[in-house]
Design a protein that fits this description.
alpha+beta; 17% strand
Length: 150
Amino acid sequence: MPQSLVTLRVHLVFATKQRVPMMGPDIEPQLHAYMATILNAQDSPAIAIGGTSDHVHVLFSLSKNRALAAVVEKVKSGTSKWIKTKGRAYRGFFWQTGYAAFSIGKSGEAALVRYLKNQKQHHRKTDFKDELRMLLKKYEVIYCEEYLWD
């Protein structure tokens, strides 16, 4: 085959360090827009971004020329540096060390976009820890609870 044809949709989830609620309505839209800018620069455009004050979900199309870990590192380090320039309240901002990422087929995209847009409503009933455990179970990810949180 003379060309490489790839479609890799990724559902990325990560939280603030110790799930400190630092992303309020004053900064969240700007933060999500900046994440999208970083992803575009990595040839991995954002499809949808959602979250709450302590975590974020990103659905994006991973470039065939980029490693997932490298793209995630760019997003997390870039947004962390950016948000710290937005005032005193954000000087202590840090993302958790790790992340969770799941592959999503085109057929599941619309449902996931709705899920990301309804994060605030969803988290009135479910906290981040329970949500992440549910996602890990759904995607059959083996994990050790002892090392899941920081």
